[in-house]
Design a protein that fits this description.
five-stranded mixed β-sheet, two-stranded antiparallel sheet, Glutaredoxin, alpha/beta, elongated, about 425 residues
Amino acid sequence: MNSTFARVLRVAAGVATVLAATLLSVAGALAQAPAGVELHLFWRVGCQHCENEKAFLAGLQAREPRLRVRSYEVLQDGSGRELFRRVGERLGVQVGSVPLAVVGDTVFIGFLDESATGRRIEARVAECLASPCPDSVKPLALAVAGSEAQAPAAERRAATTGPALPEAVRLPLLGEVRTANLSLPVLTLLLAAVDGFNPCAMWVLVFLLGLLVALKDRGRMWLLGGAFVVASALVYFLFLAAWLNVFLFIGTVAWIRWVIAAVAVIGGLLYLREFVTNPEAVCKVTGADERRRVFDRLRELTNREQLWLALGGIVALAFAVNVVELICSAGIPAVYTQILVQSALPAWQYYGYLALYILVFMLDDLVVLFATLGALEVTGLTSRYTRWSNLLGGAVLVALGLILVFRPGWLSFG
């Protein structure tokens, strides 16, 4: 009996030993096995670069099952947008451009192609699989989702920031060319040039220059004429900035794109109607009485002996006239600033593009100013240029409106 019991104990002890050894071996293997890696991807609707990166990540997941991709849409999803903002604050990077991917504490802004950005993302994933990386986004995502889990108190900055767009490619003859956002400057130049041929503000400048030429005082001519042009540019810049900030505030609402598309199509049709019905390209916003009052005011200001009073009056008049004449150009700025917002750029790029727009927009005024004051002879752009700009502007606006409705991704340059 005792010997039987002893044998049972020995067998049980042996089984227990083998089981314990097996469990320890499995536990050790599990402890040594690298944990999975989470990649957090911020994207938005209509972004072709985002779609390219999502396709790349799907293939990467198929090759590496331990990779988990968490996606957050930032245009229409309020929680995704809030997480996007918090990630930027936590990691010390300027958010705005998408796609933006975070692996551990490394940020990758933009996506060129699999061989460039994709290769760097894949290398970082491999590093985090070999040696665990801190997940900088997960605690923030839990906090945004309403979880009781609190984000770490210590601020962590990105140890390594992936290269942001634009990235460079090498082309024959041209060498290394920055590829990202090449289309947006071209569109800026086109719309600003079309918008710049505006008969509404030109008549004021031409009349002012006629008065200044009669004074035969080059210094006064350059100062007052230049002040009018600079003040006009400032008014238009503020107007564009106002449009931009309105769309930055409400631009994430999906229906706003349809509203701007309707504005573009209607505005384009009005431009085309002007081309057909207004061959003289005369501005219809300001009537004869209003123009006469402006002329009288200009004569009074240019004949003042006190230069600084004349300068202040010219600037004030430029502001007043251009605010009224903005009615001639409301459509193109609305469409252009909506395209900027849709491209999800960093803040400094928004205002950089506005400055480029203003520079091109004012080129016709600058040409008239320099030609007139250089030759002491009043020179104006003929109505033919303005009329044909109505045709081009109308066609461009109608095309942009249709693209905003049916192919908005074509106008996403972020």
